[in-house]
Amino acid sequence: MKRTAILAALLLGACTVGPDYAEPQLAVPANYLESSASETASLDRWWQGFGDAQLTSLVDRALTTNLDIEMATARIREARALEQVAGAGAYPQVAAEASVTRQRISENAFPVPPTPGTGGGGGGLVLGEEFTTWRVGFDASWELDLFGRNRREREAAAARTGSAIWSRRDAEVSVAAEVANAYLRLRTFQARIANAEAELERQLRFEQLVEARARGGLVTGQDLEQQKSERAVAAAEIPALQAQARAEIHALGVLTGRSPDALAAELAPAKAQLVPPPIPAGVPSELLRRRPDIRAAERELAAATADIGVAVADLYPRFSLTAAPALVSTALGSLLEWGSRSVSAGAALDWPIFDGGARRANIEVQSARQEQAMIAYRGTVLTGLQDVEDALGQLAGNQRKLAELEQGLSTAARAEEISRTRYRGGLVTLADVLVARQRRLSLEEQVIEIRGALARDTVTLVKALGGGWQEPVQ
């Protein structure tokens, strides 16, 4: 009864040493510099906003089969197993043991020969005799967590599990963005290929006009050769664009966890480039809760804080209880008899007195790591804010650029048409037509590129906002 009271007093007096974690409160701007919109869009499945079933299918497949996500999922399983390992230290450890030992008592084990009939002073055993000992029982031990060492270990392990979960969500965000960007680049290349093929057709038709004028003696053969050269240059553009498009198809195959050529038949040229949906940025404070990399960094900070408590607990004594009940006999037939019982129990205290300052230095190590984790968390937040501001600025700039380029393209197309008409009438030279054509071609390429860039800018903004993962269903 007295022993039970002592044990209860020890358990009631238990405490948890080290700092208690509190999530840091960082000051962030009230609004983004590049946007005044405060409303927030649903970003869980943002790729559906493009209205392209093929893009939706590709992203959905990648989220289930991408190798980076599979790797992140395996890390979650590892973290949860380590959390279970840490939690096991709070419970008694029990092991069953059984043994059989064959032994011979040395005839020279005693300095003085034993008196005959006494059994050699060996408790009834005769010197030189061989015998067998049978043993079956349990070994049990329990370290009392009086100063919270194991509690801090469990706390750190749980925080690292949380970090692994958020890291997987960050992988989902990255994979969804990578698939969308590769798909949008593919559609841009395909649009450029379609434009190049249409231009080649126009060049062939214009070449027929130049050839007819050359036969009629209205122009020299130089015009015809110049036009043939221009047509050859236009044709040469197509194979390079096709190779770039195939490279994006290969990238999409790998991103979906398949071979590079697995999607070649599926990703046929589209009729038009995709129009990106509007994405309101919301307010900066939401970013701290939305971006998975920020949440993962916060969990790493929590784990580093708990590690300080583990190091501090090493300064305090460690108490443990042990017990070893067993049955022991020199004859197998009597092993299970009541008289074969053997019991030992004990309590131990381990308190470091001098270790050359190693334990206190370890506290400094963990404190420095916690400081690094705090710096990393703050850096991740700042990087996240910068990513959003950069994406908003790039998006707005490209929107203005597209409006100007489309206006310029309309003017250039009219100018080229006028020069062609005047060339038919012999009022201008072929050089005038080629200059107008080159200006129109350049603007067409720029418009196609900027439309693709605008769609990718939207993807960049969504990624910066932390879109692309879903809360698990409770």
Describe the protein's topology:
Elements: H1 2-12, H2 53-65, H3 67-88, E1 93-104, E2 130-144, H4 149-215, H5 221-255, H6 284-290, H7 292-313, E3 318-323, E4 326-329, E5 341-342, E6 345-350, H8 358-424, H9 430-464
Antiparallel strand pairs: 1-2, 2-3, 2-4, 3-6, 4-5
Helix pairs in contact: 2-4, 3-4, 4-5, 4-7, 4-9, 7-8, 8-9
Protein architecture, described:
Strands 1, 2, 3, 4, 5 and 6 form a six-stranded antiparallel beta sheet that branches. This protein has two domains: 16-90 and 146-316 and 358-464, Outer membrane efflux proteins (OEP), CATH 1.20.1600.10; 92-144 and 317-350, Outer membrane efflux proteins (OEP) (Single Sheet). 32% of the residues are buried. The protein is 59% helix and 9% strand. With 474 residues, the protein is α+β, with helices and mostly antiparallel strands. The protein is built from nine helices and six strands; from the N terminus they run H-H-H-E-E-H-H-H-H-E-E-E-E-H-H. The chain has helices spanning 2-12, 53-65, 67-88, 149-215, 221-255, 284-290, 292-313, 358-424, 430-464; strands spanning 93-104, 130-144, 318-323, 326-329, 341-342, 345-350. Helix 2 runs antiparallel to helix 4 (149-215), helix 4 runs antiparallel to helix 5 (221-255) and helix 8 runs antiparallel to helix 9 (430-464).
